[in-house]
Specification:
- Strand 5 and strand 6 form a beta hairpin.
- The protein folds into three domains: about 150 residues, no CATH class; about 160 residues, Rossmann fold, CATH 3.40.50; about 140 residues, Rossmann fold, CATH 3.40.50.
- The strands form five sheets. Strands 3, 4, 5, 6, 7 and 8 form a six-stranded mixed beta sheet that branches. Strands 13-10-9-15-14 form a five-stranded parallel beta sheet.
- The protein is flat.
- It contains 15 helices and 19 strands.
- The chain is α/β, with parallel strands linked by helices and about 575 residues long.
- The structure holds 2-acetamido-2-deoxy-beta-D-glucopyranose (4 copies).
- One 2-acetamido-2-deoxy-beta-D-glucopyranose (NAG) binds next to loops.
- One of its GO terms (cellular component) is Golgi apparatus.
- Pfam families: DUF7074 (PF23269), DUF7075 (PF23272).
- Keywords: Membrane, Transmembrane, Transmembrane helix.
């Protein structure tokens, strides 16, 4: 590669300015929009509704969150928007003329002499590298490539090499990068020109997937992150703003306190008890982020319980399920690296060891009406907020109500979706070449209830779909159908016109042989993790949102209202 550096500096630089622009934008969006966005958005209701309780002060929000009958909380299609969804990628779109690596950057040089015509192909040969980069850019025309890692030997057969790259889909609406690594079958011509015979599937180039270096802040061994000016790696320096890199190896081990000195000099905040447990995920986050916001306001480390109880609306047993891990759903690495948090089990262990000896004080607060501002002067090592048994006064988020509301901002930017789940999304989109349209078809209970949804069943029938979609989506396109219709053969008539895909077609991305399965099992002390309803809705929705054209049930397919007859919002 001498003399032909890849434009990785450009890529890093761009990513940084993207971050800054996004930061600026997020600042401008303000709190209200965050609330609007983050809570329980359904993919079909992503429009602004002035009467949305989420836009109102917290008294209304409280009754909203506690009204279990609220239709908006019916689970089947609701999924959370999280911090990375507000990193606006349009800031990073094609107004910059040369963001991605172009074909002309990687054209192979003319073949020179070659002495070793018969031997194994040397993956380190710059010529091979160039041919592989060229083939990737030519093959995946819907991607913009930002960095290629050096190839590594593939299957060890002398004709395959593995290579990683960082990319973004061409028309990405979100500010995220994706990493892929694939296996290339190569051939060598008589005059030593190389050619790519075949590029393997998503994530097949496992030898190019290096784990991150253990040295915190040190140079990473990742083939893609070797540049010390890497603006995308949260571990590099004190970058105020980062974007997710989906597909990058995740290291979400729990933080530890290195020494007694460090522990005893720390200041901590913990919330215990309360009625938030087993509530829907949006309630959980609303409360958790209040605690995190208070901890940040007080300059204290938040002691958190990483064990989550999953609400029955997402479980296959229809019972609330304890023992889920925060890391199944959210990006703990991002949280850990950008905020000060500790797992409570670790914390109590250390506390028991050193509390007496170092005379660490505990300040107990049992009334949520004691504001964070009143706690600013507390000198004790630990502030413990204890919540009682009576709902809704025992919800954590009540701490952030009233006058506190204007003081404490929930740090949404610290919460990203699990990158392991997003990697599944990337895998599904990659199998459709990032070039697909999507349709969300709500049927199920609603289609059966003709009183509230008189036309839904008919409007989502295969015949109606064929005619509605026919006007909007070209023949032979890849069509991703996100649906709650259990019997997907129902949509068979669409197969004559489109290349149809369903969520379950991609099961291998989370089944026993998948990376997701192995990694979550490891997190879960060896016990296999069920791919639950929340994960399912999250992945399904995120894939839907990556379609080039997105057709939604309500408005696009039917004039029935999402919440039943006469419940249509008049604004939009
Ligand atoms: C992102 O930017 C585009 C154009 O600047 C704008 O239309 C869109 O609403 C923005 N999205 C968000 C989530 O702010
Ligand atoms: C090498 O051989 C291939 C066909 O095997 C031919 O297309 C190509 O032009 C040759 N390249 C050079 C530099 O001779
Ligand atoms: C994961 O990250 C933690 C904290 O940054 C670090 O101490 C640990 O060595 C890392 N583990 C690996 C395998 O990189
Ligand atoms: C937290 O730290 C910041 C910066 O050091 C300081 O300005 C602020 O007053 C501190 N807040 C409290 C509650 O101690």
């Amino acid at each position: 590669m001498q003399g032909r550096p890849l434009p990785s500096r450009t890529a890093s630089f761009r990513a940084e300015s993207l971050g800054q622009r996004a930061l600026h934008l997020v600042g401008n969006l303000g709190f209200a929009l965050f609330v609007l966005g983050v809570l329980a958005f359904t993919i079909i209701a992503a429009t602004y509704h002035p009467d949305d309780p989420l836009l109102h002060p917290s008294s209304k929000l409280t009754s909203f969150l506690t009204a279990t009958s609220s239709a908006t909380f019916r689970s089947d299609e609701s999924v959370l928007r999280t911090g990375e969804d507000f990193l606006n990628a349009s800031a990073a779109s094609d107004d910059d003329p040369s963001p991605a690596i172009r074909l002309s950057d990687v054209s192979p040089t003319a073949a020179g002499d070659c002495d070793d015509k018969g031997g194994p192909i040397d993956c380190k040969d710059p010529e091979v590298y160039h041919v592989m980069m060229q083939a990737s850019i030519e093959t995946y025309r819907n991607n913009h490539f930002y960095r290629f890692g050096k190839p590594a030997p593939g299957a060890g057969d002398g004709r395959t090499c593995d290579m990683a790259w960082r990319f973004r889909p061409k028309d990405a609406k979100r500010a995220a990068f994706y990493k892929d690594y694939r296996r290339f079958d190569l051939a060598r011509g008589p005059n030593c020109t190389y050619s790519v015979v075949k590029i393997g599937d998503y994530h097949t180039g496992v030898n190019a997937r290096k784990k991150k270096n253990k040295l915190k802040g040190g140079p990473s061994s990742d083939t893609l992150s070797s540049s010390s000016a890497d603006g995308l790696d949260p571990r590099n320096g004190e970058k105020p703003f980062v974007v997710p890199v989906v597909g990058e190896a995740v290291n979400d081990t729990l933080p530890v306190v290195e020494s007694e000195g460090k522990f005893s000099a720390g200041k901590y905040l913990i919330y215990t008890g309360g009625g938030d447990r087993c509530k829907p995920m949006n309630h959980y986050l609303w409360s958790f982020l209040c605690a995190l916001g208070e901890a940040q306001y007080l300059n204290r480390t938040l002691i958190m319980d990483l064990s989550i109880c999953l609400n029955s609306m997402y479980t296959s047993t229809n019972q609330d399920e304890e023992g889920k891990d925060f890391r199944f759903y959210f990006d703990f690495e991002h949280l850990r690296d950008s905020a000060s948090v500790l797992d409570e089990r670790q914390f109590w262990k250390d506390w028991a060891l050193w509390q007496k000896k170092d005379r660490l004080g505990l300040h107990l607060v049992e009334n949520f009406k004691v504001t964070p501002m009143k706690l600013a002067e507390v000198k004790d090592a630990l502030i413990m907020r204890k919540f009682g048994a009576v709902e809704p006064d025992n919800y954590w988020y009540r701490v952030c109500e009233g006058e506190t509301e204007s003081v404490i901002q929930r740090p949404w930017h610290l919460i990203w979706k699990s990158r392991r789940l997003m990697d599944i999304v990337s895998g599904i989109a990659s199998r459709m070449n990032w070039d697909f349209d999507s349709v969300h078809v709500v049927r199920g209970e609603k289609a059966r209830n003709t009183e509230l949804w008189p036309n839904l069943a008919r409007d989502t029938s295969p015949e109606a779909l064929l005619s509605t979609l026919g006007e909007k989506i070209d023949d032979r396109r890849h069509l991703y159908i996100a649906t709650n219709e259990p019997d997907t053969s129902f949509f068979d008539p669409l197969k004559d016109k489109y290349i149809v895909h369903f969520f379950d077609d991609f099961k291998d991305l989370w089944d026993e042989n998948s990376e997701w399965y192995t990694e979550t099992q490891r997190l879960n002390i060896g016990i296999p993790v069920e791919f639950d309803g929340y994960m399912r809705v999250e992945v399904d929705t995120e894939v839907f949102l990556r379609g080039k054209k997105q057709i939604e049930t309500f408005n696009d397919l039917t004039s029935d209202c999402k919440d039943g007859i006469n419940a249509c919002r008049t604004d939009s």
